[in-house]
Amino acid sequence: MPKNSKLNTAFLVRNETDLRSQFSETHEIAIKKCLKHIDEHARKFIERSPFVCIGTQSPDGSADVSPRGDPCGFVKILDDTTLLIPDRPGNNRLDTLSNILTNSKVGLLFLVPGFDDTMRVNGHAELTRDPDLLSMMAVNERVPKIAIAVHVDEVFIHCAKALRRSKLWDVDQHQNRDDVPSLMKIILDQTSGAPTDPEEQLRLDENLEREYRQTMY
Q1: CB-side exposure of 85: number of CA atoms within 13 Å?
Q2: Cβ atoms 152, 104 nearer than 8 A
Q3: Are 28 and 70 in contact (CB under 8 A)?
Q4: Residue pair 139/73 in contact by the 8 Å Cβ criterion
Q5: By three-state DSSP, how is residue 69 classified?
Q6: Hey, which end of the chain has fewer CB within 10 Å, N or C?
Q7: At 145, is the secondary structure helix, strand, or coil?
Q8: In angstroms, rounded to a whole number, what is the distance separating the alpha carbons of residues 216 and 128?
Q9: For 11, which DSSP code?
Q10: Torsion of Cα atoms, 93 then 99 then 101 then 107, to 10°
Q11: Residue 10 neighbours by CB under 8 Å, 6+ apart
């Protein structure tokens, strides 16, 4: 724990027994709903999803979560235990891909706009350059360089409580993006420093939007 932490150590939960004592027993159906394959319901959910978060872990144990998005059905279902996720152009940090090479365990969280429930998939992953598989995921005639093949160990539907609490899809809860600095200004503030000239900042913001359009795929 960091030295300047404000947490009271007397109330920290330090073992499984202590943790379990704070909750009632797991409902039997919550255990039985976990499948080891993609059934018809999971298939329909994944085919409708345009967005998935993928969690990985580095060799030193550092956790990472990366969002992936594309048109609905972009995650291909190769068979009942194998998913294929295209890797689209990004910032080339390659955190997710590098982590998979050293620790294949991954966790996926699928969202469908308007659905309050989510789909969770846990498994182990590999990276593939198979041209036949990559060609299946071309967009605007652009083929991804790499795809993440996920071998399913566990799949289950997750209840709607989190999304209902957050009101994620409620338009009345949407916030105005203009109330906070632009992405480019935030990055520059955190690195080399943002320009003080508003017109120069606007130009940089417009350049980023132009880059989005040109390098999406």
Answers
A1: 29
A2: no
A3: no
A4: no
A5: strand
A6: N
A7: coil
A8: 21
A9: G
A10: -120
A11: none
Q: Residue 37 is encoded by which pair of tokens?
A: 């394959």
Q: Is 133 helix (H, G, I), strand (E, B) or coil?
A: helix
- Provide the 3-class DSSP secondary structure of residue 77: strand
Average pLDDT per consecutive 10 residues, the chain (217 residues; last block may be shorter) = 84 94 90 94 98 96 96 97 96 95 97 98 98 95 96 97 97 95 95 94 95 90
Q: What is the pTM of this model?
A: 0.92
Phi, psi values for residue 81, rounded to 5°: -135, 15
3-class DSSP state of 64: strand
Distance CA 161, CA 5 (A): 30
**Can you tell me the distance from the alpha carbon of 169 to that of 153, in angstroms, rounded to the nearest whole number?**
30
Output the furthest CA–CA distance in the chain (Å, rounded).
61
pLDDT at 30: 83
User: Does residue 106 contact residue 124 with C-beta atoms inside 8 Å?
Assistant: yes
What's residue 31's pLDDT? 85
Structural domains of the chain ordered from first start = 23-166 (2.30.110.10), 175-215 (no CATH)
Sequence-distant (6+) residues with CB within 8 A of 140 are 217
Q: What is the structure's pLDDT at 27?
A: 87
